[in-house]
Amino acid sequence: GNSVTQMEGPVTLSEEAFLTINCTYTATGYPSLFWYVQYPGEGLQLLLKATKADDKGSNKGFEATYRKETTSFHLEKGSVQVSDSAVYFCALRAMTAGNKLTFGGGTRVLVKP
Amino acid sequence: DSGVTQTPKHLITATGQRVTLRCSPRSGDLSVYWYQQSLDQGLQFLIQYYNGEERAKGNILERFSAQQFPDLHSELNLSSLELGDSALYFCASSPSGTIYEQYFGPGTRLTVT
Asked: If you measure CA to CA, which chain B residue comes closest to A31?
């Protein structure tokens, strides 16, 4: 079946540090890939997405590239801020599974000033 | 604000009881999805409705049921509650068609005591 594996947290960083959160997936067909962010006490917000191989999703300084050869969609940000402290979820949507999202376990990121 | 509303925000109830969670999708969205977020299971897809009809089912227990009404709002009914049902329940909505991303509500936190 479809699955998403992402690095366990928590990840603790200083402000302006470089952030990488690894995400790999297993899916049939050609899934769409997403990163969602959950700020404390809030719901999930779509951060970025990529729908085909080699697509790069980007938003708010975050980037992720759909790598079919390594089945990965790692999230990166060059200079994090305290306001980036949140839980980040990698997810996939496989066409063979309708429109449901399959999520990774989430990675908590804490950015210290 | 995603435009998806969920009520109530918090719910505390006892084992064996029955509760109903409500979701109003974004204006114009025909699909509604329910997800459960728990510490041990992570974020899991429960069920999807499209324009009043069940479209897909995930890891939803038989004690749980859902429906989508003609005005497109949806309700998730949880019965014979157990301690393990304590979780954050999210509703998401999307327009028709599988190419669209899902927009999540703020969630309902259910605590079973």
From this structure: B99
